[in-house]
Amino acid sequence: MTKKIFKSIMIVASTVLIASLAIIMGCLYRYFSDIQEKQLEDELSLAVIAVEKDGRNYLKELQSNQYRLTWVAENGDVIYDTQSDGESMENHADREEIQEALQNKEGKSSRYSTTLLEKTIYCARRLDDGSVLRISVSSVTIWVLILGMIQPILIVVVVTLILSVVLASRISKHIMEPLNSLDLEKPLENDTYEELAPLLNRINKQHKQIDMQLSELRRKNDEFAQITYGMTEGLVLLNEKNVILNINPAALKLFHTDPSCKGKDFLTVERSREVSRAIQEAFSSGHSEIRMECEGKEYQLHINRIESNGAVMGAVLFTFDITEAAFAERNRREFTANVSHELKTPLQSIMGSAELMENGLVKPEDMTRFVGHIRTEAERLVILIDDIIRLSRLDEGCDMPFEIIDLYEIATDVVMRLTDLAAAKNIKITVTGEKLKIKSVRQLLAEILFNLCDNAIKYNKDGGRVEVSINRQGKSAVISVKDSGIGIPPEHQARIFERFYRVDKSRSKDSGGTGLGLSIVKHAVQYLNGKIDLQSSPGKGTEIKCYLLFDRHY
Amino acid sequence: MRSHFDEQLAELHNELTQMGAMCEEAIAVASKALALGNAKLTDRVLSLDGEINRMERTIETLCLKLLLQQQPVARDLRQISAALKMITDMERIGTQAADIAEIITFLDGRTGEECEQIRFMAETAGQMVTESIDAFVKQDVILAGTAIDRDDVVDDLFLQAKSSLIRLIEEKPADGGYALDLLMIAKYFERIGDHAVNIAKWVVFSVTGMHKGKQI
Question: Which one of A101, A147, A346, A545 has the fewest beta carbons within 10 angstroms of its own beta carbon?
Fold first, then answer.
């Protein structure tokens, strides 16, 4: 800015200087040369009169340094010259002013010296005798004048330079100061010169636009953060160079890192080769999936390539906690294996007996025993299948009729059904408690009580006791079945409700259980929105309590 | 020019991280093979060892290329020279994991449960390698210090393992060969710990310029 202003000032100043110099010099020079010419003519007239009167003597006596007088004869020979020897001078007939004077009585001319430093003006007049008298004066040319003025001109130029530098910087400062002190946040509140108003208006407009875009962006960012922040699934955004762009808290926790990992290579967060390979695969083929284990939990990683206009922009990595799903899957697999095994065992036994009979290897007196064996095994099979059907019905959660039932009544019913079994093992079974009415499913309650009591008898000592009690505790009805049996070791307590789970695998055959009883109890109680509590110590006995809410069904 | 160099340095960092991950996996698989007495897993350790060796060549070439072409100074030079040293240790870790795997095939499915220190050693050595690689990845001097300190644990465990194996030989002279195999495995784990310490020390060097407390 300063430079530009300086340049303009300099251009203006030098133009003015040169122009005024030219005009002044031109005018003055002409004026003075006119005066000089007139003087010359006057001098010449005087000299002509004098020469005509006195002839050569006048010229000889004339003492003038200013003018030079030359008397030239009609044929051009110099008769006399005031400044040099006339005889030795060359013939002047060809001189312009002489020729002119010879013809027109008067002649004029001016000639520059070879160096241009001097200009000589000649004036000639024909005398009456035909000779010509010429007067000449030398003066300096305009260039010499200018040359002589160079020093003052230079001084003026230097002064102009300094002045323009100072002025330029001051002007630019003056222009720029309000610009620099503009409050760009509030462009319209500035008090500056009016030339700036359009600019300020434009800035104001852009401000508004930027604000709008910014708030839009912030909103979108917030939305994204809100969504990803609350997600239980981990989310990692990678760019095409595998650098983390964004990572949500769930993923941070999974990969044991902190938010400072943004902008770093994903390898610094998770370097296991399976994951690296999966990411590479996603980058090359578009999608990949792997499972990974971390602190006893299982995660599934989905990696998808992000493309835009055919160019790979990066990848997005999702992690899902599939611990429970994997656990359920394992359970299902185990269940299927168990079911097939449990179904096969009695069938194998039936087949064995049948084969023996078919081949006539069974004595007639043993026949009843074998057929009886086949029958009991078949019965076992039926019970097992019944249990499985019941369980799957509970699993599916199909609707069962709710009615108002007396718990105490059901308990006594069930106990009645089991008295024979109990008597066979010398077990005393009692029902205590109050009559409690509850809205529930009769079949399920009977199932629960039957299975609990059945277990209590089966896994009891000879001459033991089983106490069934029905009580009210707060808002729940509590069915408690307590035995004085063998108890359940603590390490098994968490698993006994699983299907086909047996504490003592070798005893399963003798006790005749299917391994599904407690599983059915658990599912039935769950179906009725109840809770199960287990307390057991090996050798002393077990107490299982089922809490069923009243108000839920009333 | 500099940005290209930075890219190459990042590549070096990535390759080293990957090589470290391979070492971790090799130890983890070797430990698992020992714990399960599963000789099938040993093949994986051997193939990993091969990969680790190839990786060492790759990184070595990259380091030399960087040294020649970029003529790095100061921190860059430290990083590259530390990388050159670290890959040697990583390669040793891989080879020793492979050696352990080979010995496991001689154990006939026995898992060394007579000497429980070996299991701890495997765990601790693996942890040390993980910590030193983590320290490298995060350029974390404190974590490197943790890895270095943990070496004492492995050394102690080795001595304990030795005495319990001596007892085993005394009690069951017939198991002498088995006990010696276990001793070899223990020694290899102890060596792996030492290599992890070396790696951690080079991490400290590449960050601070100090190696074993001296400016070099």
Answer: A147
B7 touches chain A (CB under 8 A): no
Statement to judge: residues A366 and A499 lie in one domain: no
In this structure, is residue A160 part of a structural domain?
Answer: no
Residues A508 and A430 in one domain: yes
Residue at which a domain ends, from A260, A287, A321? A321
CATH number of the domain within which A105 lies: 3.30.450.20
Alpha-carbon gap: B3 to the closest alpha carbon of chain A (Å): 15
Predicted local confidence at residue A510, as pLDDT: 58
Interface of A with B in 199-238 (CB under 8 A): none
Does A84 reach chain B within 8 Å, measured CB to CB? no
Do A8 and A136 share a domain, yes or no?
yes
pLDDT in tens, B78-121: 888 888 999 999 999 999 999 988 888 887 777 767 767 888 88
CATH topology of domain B2-215: Methane Monooxygenase Hydroxylase; Chain G, domain 1 (1.20.58)
User: In CATH, what number is assigned to the domain containing residue A384?
Assistant: 1.10.287.130
Closest-approach residue (CA) in chain A for B15: A267
Interface test with B, best of A267, A269, A277, A292 (most B CBs within 10 A): A267
Give the integer Cα–Cα distance in Å for A500 and A518: 9
Chain B residues touching A265 at Cβ < 8 A: 10, 13-14, 17
Q: What pLDDT digit, counting tens, does each position of A33-88 carry?
A: 888 888 888 888 888 888 888 777 777 777 666 788 888 888 888 888 877 776 77
| Nearest-10 crossing angle of helices B116-138, B2-36 | 170
Count the domains in chain A. 4
pTM over 0.80: no
Domain ranges, ordered by start, for chain B? 2-215
Q: Is the minimum CB–CB distance between B44 and chain A shorter than 8 Å?
A: no
Residues A274 and A339 both lie in one domain:
no
Instruction: Say yes or no for a CB contact (<8 Å) between A276 and B21.
Output: yes
Distance CA A340, CA A388 (A): 12
Q: In terms of domains, do A445 and A492 share one?
A: yes
Do A549 and A529 contact (CB within 8 A), yes or no?
yes
B150-208 confidence digits (pLDDT tens): 889 889 989 988 888 888 888 888 888 888 888 898 899 999 999 999 999 999 988 88
At A554 the pLDDT is 42
Looking at the DSSP assignment, which residues form a beta bridge with residue B214? B211
A271 touches chain B (CB under 8 A): yes
Residues A451 and A539 in one domain: yes
Contacts of B191 (CB under 8 A, 6+ apart): B92, B96
Rounded alpha-carbon distances, angstroms, from residue A301 to A236, A312, B10, B14, B23:
11, 20, 25, 21, 23
Query: Under DSSP, is residue A436 helix (H, G, I), strand (E, B) or coil?
Result: coil
Nearest CA in chain A to B135: A268
Residue A161 lies in a domain: no
**CATH number, position A444:** 3.30.565.10
Are the Cβ atoms of B18 and A271 closer than 8 angstroms?
yes
Q: Is residue B37 helix, strand or coil?
A: coil
Q: What is the pLDDT of residue A209?
A: 93
Q: Which residues of chain A have pLDDT under 70?
A: 63-65, 86, 116, 505-513, 551-554
Q: Which residues of chain B have a CB within 8 Å of the CB of A280? A: none
Q: Which domain holds residue A36?
A: 2-148
DSSP class of residue A125 equals E
Q: How far off is chain B from A269, nearest CA to CA, in Å? A: 8
Interface residue of B137, B143, B203 to substitute, partner A, most A CBs within 10 Å: B137
Residue A290 lies in a domain: yes
Task: Give the pair of three-digit tokens for residue A443.
Answer: 């079949």
Instruction: Tell me if A209 is assigned to some domain.
Output: no
Tell whether the model's pLDDT for residue B32 goes beyond 70: yes
